[in-house]
Amino acid sequence: xxxxxxxxxxxxxxxxxxxxxxxxxxxxxxxxxxxxxxxxxxxxxxxxxxxxxxxxxxxxxxxxxxxxxxxxxxxxxxxxxxxxxxxxxxxxxxxxxxxxxxxxxxxxxxxxxxxxxxxxxxxxxxxxxxxxxxxxxxxxxxxxxxxxxxxxxxxxxxxxxxxxxxxxxxxxxxxxxxxxxxxxxxxxxxxxxxxxxxxxxxxxxxxxxxxxxxxxxxxxxxxxxxxxxxxxxxxxxxxxxxxxxxxxxxxxxxxxxxxxxxxxxxxxxxxxxxxxxxxxxxxxxxxxxxxxxxxxxxxxxxxxxxxxxxxxxxxxxxxxxxxxxxx
Amino acid sequence: xxxxxxxxxxxxxxxxxxxxxxxxxxxxxxxxxxxxxxxxxxxxxxxxxxxxxxxxxxxxxxxxxxxxxxxxxxxxxxxxxxxxxxxxxxxxxxxxxxxxxxxxxxxxxxxxxxxxxxxxxxxxxxxxxxxxxxxxxxxxxxxxxxxxxxxxxxxxxxxxxxxxxxxxxxxxxxxxxxxxxxxxxxxxxxxxxxxxxxxxxxxxxxxxxxxxxxxxxxxxxxxxxxxxxxxxxxxxxxxxxxxxxxxxxxxxxxxxxxxxxxxxxxxxxxxxxxxxxxxxxxxxxxxxxxxxxxxxxxxxxxxxxxxxxxxxxxxxxxxxxxxxxxxxxxxxxxxxxxxxxxxxxxxxxxxxxxxxxxxxxxxxxxxxxxxxxxxxxxxxxxxxxxxxxxxxxxxxxxxxxxxxxxxxxxxxxxxxxxxxxxxxxxxxxxxxxxxxxxxxxxxxxxxxxxxxxxxxxxxxxxxxxxxxxxxxxxxxxxxxxxxxxxxxxxxxxxxxxxxxxx
Amino acid sequence: xxxxxxxxxxxxxxxxxxxxxxxxxxxxxxxxxxxxxxxxxxxxxxxxxxxxxxxxxxxxxxxxxxxxxxxxxxxxxxxxxxxxxxxxxxxxxxxxxxxxxxxxxxxxxxxxxxxxxxxxxxxxxxxxxxxxxxxxxxxxxxxxxxxxxxxxxxxxxxxxx
Lengths: 327, 502, 161
What we know:
The complex is a heterotrimer of chains A (327), B (502) and C (161).
Chain A: H1 2-22, E1 36-40, H2 47-63, E2 67-71, H3 79-87, E3 94-98, H4 101-108, E4 119-127, E5 130-135, H5 143-152, E6 158-161, H6 167-179, E7 184-187, H7 191-199, E8 205-209, H8 213-217, E9 221-226, E10 254-259, H9 264-279, H10 281-289, E11 293-297, H11 299-319
Parallel strand pairs in A: 1-2, 1-3, 6-7, 6-8
Antiparallel strand pairs in A: 3-10, 4-10, 4-11, 5-8, 5-9
Helix pairs in contact in A: 2-9, 2-10, 4-11
Chain B: H1 2-14, H2 17-35, H3 40-48, H4 57-82, H5 90-102, H6 106-141, H7 144-157, H8 166-181, E1 183-184, E2 191-192, H9 206-223, H10 243-264, H11 270-285, H12 298-313, H13 315-321, H14 327-338, H15 347-350, H16 352-383, H17 388-407, H18 410-428, H19 433-457, H20 463-466, H21 468-482, H22 487-498
Antiparallel strand pairs in B: 1-2
Helix pairs in contact in B: 1-16, 2-4, 2-16, 3-4, 3-14, 4-5, 4-6, 4-12, 4-14, 4-16, 5-6, 5-12, 6-10, 6-12, 6-13, 6-16, 7-19, 7-21, 8-19, 9-17, 9-18, 9-19, 10-11, 10-12, 11-12, 17-18
Chain C: H1 14-35, E1 39-40, E2 43-44, H2 48-71, H3 76-79, H4 86-105, H5 107-122, H6 127-148
Helix pairs in contact in C: 1-2, 4-5, 5-6
């Protein structure tokens, strides 16, 4: 009996302690009244994580509440947004970074979310810098050399990408289709491996984000072109896609969104805070370290952009045989 | 004697009080997170990344590097004490390390792994200073064909890991490969064996698998017999390795260090292959291979040395080419970039103070780690005196937390519990988990590189023989497979397999 | 696992049935491999490796079965001889329940009862030790992770933690 009582007492004490420790989740009128969780669907410490942390840090100053970054990696950056769409309340306290794979994966296979319906898009933020490099000792001095060689030897030109179905793969195939050439993709896992592949002459070309920068600076790799809108200030000699005769920009853009059905007023508040964040010089400087440039789109434009991207990607993905199989 | 001048310059940087302080903070945090399996250096480093922004690049990176190699020291602690490996390389340490602990020899096991780590770490640093630039080419000489052959060699090592039935071990290895292949195929972007679960698209995590099979599986097995109350022999005679232990360990440490350093240079899987290969090598060379799996100190000393030397070797591709060979190195790359530095061919010439300062700080850090870790051994050993009915709920708690922290996903906790149950039944029926784990890590690498090399060679299988490195790996694999069949060596192989049904 | 006795072929031979399980898994893997397409030699498909590994699995499983028929093997009963199988069984049941509770209830609300059950049900620890340990260990770890490492353990629908 004594023991029983002691149990009850201990339980009560523990409960009371717990209650004082956590406090109640107070409901209030003015958003935000408690910390906001930002899902970053990538491992901590990567370029996306660090840039999102910098942006979130700046935005939290304008919101007056801290933003906690929750790294929920997996599924090529889709597990985080998908979990949010399925489980989180649209109260503005859970938002997620939306990488382009959220739109692309549904084109390739059955998924649990619908990019058109399941998200409240908030703001478009920035994108990556992609480029094509070759070994410095290679016979290819310009992109035109590659096209000429590929025309004479279809399928002989190999290029390393960080994976099938990544922006790099889709982009390269789009370029090849426009140029009327056939290239062979060799999918690696992540940027580190593509650098080694092209350095060791295992593949002829590399298509990747700016992980190649130190090797280009050291003269070990030659940058043939970049896929950004304008020439990159860090590599003024490399022509853009547009200059090379391909009217495209390929930068795997990303923004943030919440679950569907968010109050437009809350969306507007978040939009304003994040807009100010990407105008912050400190944030711009952090982004520049990863060769990222702010690419602002407001809520409405972002929604339109999602539709456009989905449509243009559908064509390419079906063209290279990655489309969803009807079964 | 450029190197000497540079080294002096490096110590000049590393011995600045502020850098010593950062180095100490780094190795201290590293020791802490290293002990907790699953949490590991990744979360600690990514969290402290912004903190380093305030100081100089040197001190920030010195601290980051400290967390990394500091965690390598602590990594073996839970493997030895409670059979929970935090990463693939520690799986080997479990095999004999935990057996030693059960025999009351946790102290010498922990001691030899700390001292072996120190020796291997120091040697790796000397090599890093002397040959870093010239070894950069090794990392890029390995293309898909070379990796595929290296993985074949790694899987052949498997046959030396088994204690019981070879057919059972090979069946486990096949299951390991299949488990490793779950997820999005990186070559065709097709989901494989995901059963429509989005969490499986990136595959099953290594941490939940090893912590389930080893940690939880062991707990389930032990609770069957808790009537005896203390699973671990309470008689602890010594805390540090004695003279005999040293005599047995000297060779394994030396060989493990060299093996680990060179394999550590290779991006992807190098360190894991190194630790398993070191174990197999020692078992092969030993006069008493039947002791392996029953608490042979060589089976702890060799792999632990290999593991730590590999951590040193891993700096080479990062510092000289800007190619991070593993996730932790990728984080370190992040630390460089955040300070506006780009590791690559120009780093050493453009920032000699930084490069040599970091290397010198690692010497100092390794010393600090030794001083920090040796007194801890006594404390860890005391932990084993806890009655098992108090200890095992805590073990379960820490496996759950470690698994959750490795990915922030509840799904991984389910995976861990599932593999704990599988691990229990595997043990009951005499199937060993170690071959499964090795194949789980190497299988996907083999598949991926095999397919990439066939794409590159346009279906020409000769590519594996025409390339010298690849041919050498395959030749070695064949020799390893055939050697036991040769009459002179036959008896030894039988000795290895003798303890069937252990 | 004593293999000294070699009984005649019996149906409750555990080796036999683990081998059969191996074949079943192997056949499943082969089928998955075929479904994912084998591809060609110059562009092997997603199912290429799975197919061949599945074949190997069947081969090894057949070896195990053959050995069990010719040499016999321990029975299911003998595997658990002298072991109290109820305890690991109870842990498995408790952990399965925990797995279901973790996400909706959150780390603290589900882990404290888990610890209490493990401490009291399997091999009872006295209450005065079990309760403080069951409360303090999860709360302590939770606090260190949250404050020290900024890792948020699942907080569940009541958002406690």
